[in-house]
Amino acid sequence: MTTNKRKKSVRFRGSKTHGWGSMKKHRGAGNRGGRGMAGTGKRADQKKPSIIKQYGHHKNYFGKHGFKRPQKVIKKIKTINIEDLKQGKKQINLQEEGYGKLLGKGTLKQAYEIKVKSYSKLAKEKVEKAGGSITKIE
Question: Does the model's pTM come out above 0.70?
Answer without folding.
Answer: no
